[in-house]
Design a protein that fits this description.
By secondary structure, the chain is α+β, with helices and mostly antiparallel strands. It is 34% helix and 24% strand. It folds into two domains: 1-32, no CATH class; 34-83.
Length: 83
Amino acid sequence: MSLGDGGHLRLVVDNHVHGAAVLRERGTTCPSADVLVVDTAGSLNALRLIADAGINLNYSYGAASAVILGVDDAIRASAVAGI
């Protein structure tokens, strides 16, 4: 979970369809986006590969075990980083 610019709450859930449905039932606007979830140990290497490919990193947040990367093109970033 992360609180972004303008008060946007970002959540990573195990079932995005169910998570979005629960939020919408409660009257919350719920856009979604693909992100990369990278093991903390490999995050610097993944960031280097993504940057070398010219893919923009829009935001990141994480904890001790994983880092969440919000990028312009998650499928391409996943491919170049080997995730």
